[in-house]
Amino acid sequence: MRHCVITSLQWDVCKILAFIVFTVEAFPQTELKLSQAFTDFSQPLSCPLFWTEYNGNCYRFFPMNKTWAEADFYCAEFSLGRTTGKLVSIHSWDENVFVFDLVNSQVSGAPTDIWIGLSDRRQEGEFEWTDGTHHDYNYWDGNQPDDGSNSKPEDEDCVQMWYRYYSAIQIIE
């Protein structure tokens, strides 16, 4: 499965000055036929050039300005066969640290915040990952989620990872 993460400065509803980190399901080695690529998972997996593998997925950081919705759509452009790129879904502390380190390794100085594939856009208060995986992990900042304390709850649905010394996750507009 492919995933994307976007870094950002808050602008409008789900808008951010974005750096993007994408995760993409690891691609089969080039000697495999395309028809085998998605049916024979016993073959060793490797990522395309400029992508970083972690736990069977490929990740890549792209510095660009995107809203959360634009970033999610952009990730979908990284598709191969039945696999579609998605904003990153984070399921453990180790994966959280991996994404944090990946972004920090490619940005001089402390980067801004990044979009991740978690939102409650379909149902207020019901968070789900864009890749359809179960929402089984979060590392919320102490006062999060707050649904934008100065706005209507339905105005703040997209989730970003804060790049602070503690690397918390926050919901933003």
Automatic annotation (TrEMBL):
It comes from the Eukaryota. Pfam families: Lectin_C. PROSITE patterns: C_TYPE_LECTIN_2. Keywords: Signal. Residues 54-161 form the C-type lectin domain. InterPro entries: C-type_lectin-like, C-type_lectin-like/link_sf, C-type_lectin/snaclec_domain, CTDL_fold. Residues 1-26 form the signal peptide. PANTHER family: MANNOSE, PHOSPHOLIPASE, LECTIN RECEPTOR RELATED. This is C-type lectin domain-containing protein. It comes from Pelobates cultripes.
